[in-house]
Amino acid sequence: MKLIDVTNNHSDLVMEQLENTDANFVKVFSLGPTTIIYSGAATHKDVLLLNKIRNIKNAEISFVLENILETTLENVEILHAPHIVELSIPNED
Questions:
Q1: Which residues contact 56 (CB under 8 A, 6 or more apart)?
Q2: Which residues pair with 80 in a beta bridge?
Q3: In the chain, which ranges are continuous DSSP H helix?
Q4: CA–CA separation, 37 vs 9, rounded Å?
Q5: Which residues pair with 77 in a beta bridge?
């Protein structure tokens, strides 16, 4: 699997997130057919995995945990929905 930074292709999404949430930064990645939206705020980091065609695979979740959040499954709150997974982790002080 390979993450490709496509943040510049989603400038409207990035601006909307920065204006309407507590996020300090927003990055958008492509992981094949899955879009990854990574945002960080003072108190937490969130990753949203989106795939319009199929549900998110466990391998994709594991890849994001290791390569973006740099943590393990035990430290993350996970919300599953059809075609979407949200991962949230509190910032360490």
A1: 34, 49, 80, 83, 84, 85
A2: 85
A3: 11-20, 58-64
A4: 12
A5: 88
> How many CB atoms are located within 10 Å of the residue 40 CB?
17
Q: What are phi and psi of 27, to 5 degrees?
A: -125, 145
Identify whether the C-beta of residue 23 lies closer than 8 Å to the C-beta of residue 39: yes
Tokens of 10: 């989603």
Sign of CA dihedral 47, 51, 55, 59: negative
Which tens digits make up the pLDDT trace of 1-14? 899 999 999 889 88
Nearest residue to 48 (alpha-carbon basis) of 93, 10, 92: 10
Query: What is the reported pTM?
Result: 0.90
Phi-psi region of 47 (alpha: psi -120 to 50; beta: other; left: phi over 0): beta
Q: Rounded distance, CA 48 to CA 61, Å?
A: 10
